[in-house]
Amino acid sequence: MGKNKLQKFADMRSYPHVFEYPYSVVDNVPFEMQGKWGKEFFKNDNPIVLELGCGRGEYTVGLGRMFPDKNFIGVDIKGSRMWSGASDSLKEGLNNVAFLRTNIEIIDRFFAEGEVSEIWLTFSDPQMKKATKRLTSTYFMDRYRKFLVPDGIIHLKTDSNFMFTYTNYMVQENKFPVLFVTEDLYHSGLVDDILGIQTYYEQQWLDRGLNIKYLKFTLPQEGALKEPEQEIELDTYRSYNRSKRSGKKTTLAFEDEQLENE
């Protein structure tokens, strides 16, 4: 256990734009910012955009630089990775950037109805064994509906053919409007400044010759959601540093696990 990681956790606790609410905390301490992000934290009524599973926060920070008229919140459970984006945004004085350290399974506890306009899913774990853990499953779509604006936008950027194929089937099954789709982003001629933001691991996947896939769709509020039934070929490789999701833990166990694994 290096001092560097201990210092990162100490830094995160002191950062004014970082909120830490894992399972064990949010069950006992209500999250009072719900429905008040714009008024009480960002001090404006600009659209709010989430990056779920933000890792080091490259997209959160990159988008924050590009769009001062929008607010961006990176969400992840891995604190030492998030520290990079949190530190960079603080040093740059990006007042439209924040970070939420929590379990994404309870994301709907942190935002009120219609409070979020867009969601970015950047290289999410494909969770090939269990559909309900996939961030593009109907299980999560039901949660996103609770706080997204009507027909809010969802972006999926992934190296995983399994995740991309599954999400396409899910979108088709539920007749979600598709705005944009490509199986090879960097050879599609469609890359712009936004899509061209590259995460640390994305650069490694590109070096391995993996295609980056992108899907952009809207999420209607009405209608019961159905899971796709098609069989999907599993990915033949494992992405860098993918680990199993942790279950419900005490605060102490949560911190110990992060210090050991990150």
UniProtKB/TrEMBL annotation:
Associated pathway: tRNA modification; N(7)-methylguanine-tRNA biosynthesis
The EC number(s) this enzyme carries: 2.1.1.33
Binding site for substrate: K129, D159, T199, Y200, Y201, E202
GO cellular component: a single term: tRNA methyltransferase complex
Enzyme class: transferase
Catalytic activity: guanosine(46) in tRNA + S-adenosyl-L-methionine = N(7)-methylguanosine(46) in tRNA + S-adenosyl-L-homocysteine
Binding positions (S-adenosyl-L-methionine): E51, D76, N103, D125
Keywords, comma-separated and alphabetical: Methyltransferase, S-adenosyl-L-methionine, Transferase, tRNA processing
Residue span of region Disordered: 242-262
GO molecular function per UniProt: tRNA (guanine(46)-N7)-methyltransferase activity
Superkingdom of this protein's organism: Bacteria
InterPro entries noted in UniProt: SAM-dependent_MTases_sf (IPR029063), tRNA_(Gua-N-7)_MeTrfase_Trmb (IPR003358), tRNA_methyltr_TrmB_bact (IPR055361)
Gene3D superfamilies: Vaccinia Virus protein VP39 (3.40.50.150)
A Pfam family assignment: Methyltransf_4
HAMAP family: tRNA_methyltr_TrmB
Function, as annotated: Catalyzes the formation of N(7)-methylguanine at position 46 (m7G46) in tRNA.
Similarity remark: Belongs to the class I-like SAM-binding methyltransferase superfamily. TrmB family.
Protein name: tRNA (guanine-N(7)-)-methyltransferase
Naturally occurring in which organism (per UniProt): Bacteroides luti
UniProt lineage: Bacteria, Pseudomonadati, Bacteroidota, Bacteroidia, Bacteroidales
Gene that this polypeptide is encoded by: trmB
